[in-house]
Amino acid sequence: MSDSNVKTLKVVVLISGSGSNLQALIDGVAAGELPIEIAAVISNRPDVMGLTRAATAGIPTAVLDHKSFASREAFDQELMRTIDAYTPGLVVLAGFMRILTPEFTQHYLGRMLNIHPSLLPKFQGLHTHQRALDAGEQEHGVTVHFVTAELDGGPAAIQAVVPVLANDDANLLAKRVQRQEHVIYPLAVKWFALGDLVMTDEGKAVLKGETLPACGYQIKANEP
What we know:
The protein has two domains: 1-108, 3-Layer(aba) Sandwich (Rossmann fold); 118-141 and 155-224, Rossmann fold, CATH 3.40.50. The model has no long low-confidence stretch (mean pLDDT 95). It has helices at residues 20-30, 49-56, 72-84, 102-107, 128-134, 170-193; strands spanning 9-15, 36-43, 61-63, 90-93, 112-116, 139-146, 156-163, 197-199, 205-207, 210-211, 217-220. By secondary structure, it is an alpha/beta fold. The protein has an eight-stranded mixed beta sheet, with helices on one face. Strands 8-9-10 form a three-stranded antiparallel beta sheet. The chain has six helices and eleven strands. Helix 1 links the parallel strand 1 and strand 2 (36-43). Helices cover 31% and strands 25% of the residues.
């Protein structure tokens, strides 16, 4: 960063797959738009594209294969130890396909973000695009939220709203939603790094001193 007064926030990113949102963060750092250092990328699956993206960017990587652990609790304990070795100020879940234990979410409460491909609280869990189509929704989208013990239930920081078009199938809708993911996730991370976005002890998301509504800060996609 050119501004020496801006402190760089250390971030650890957790992935399970291709890492397209990780790439959006890497690109934001490279462009000088994100005051963060991606200290490490950790995957619960070996040989995924996201690890290649990290290595190409010179970011340290680690693989913790969840299949090698006897229990969810044992995996989460080792994951905590691995993350904390990097002393991050923020943990970013970028397509990390694990249900986390309450102990893990409590450990990082207020300093862990997730992205979910729906307008939460609608369509928590999997297969969100097809479920939105099946429900006849006119709008769909994506939410960045703080992580709590409730699956996809933490306070929302920002949502991008995408219209559902007449010819949409789940694949087409997913592609348009994903483009918005790459816009709003770096933005939420930037807000957090600058101290503008916080989660209160009461479980509310606050942006620049203003408590956000249940949907978070909402933007409408510029494209159909």
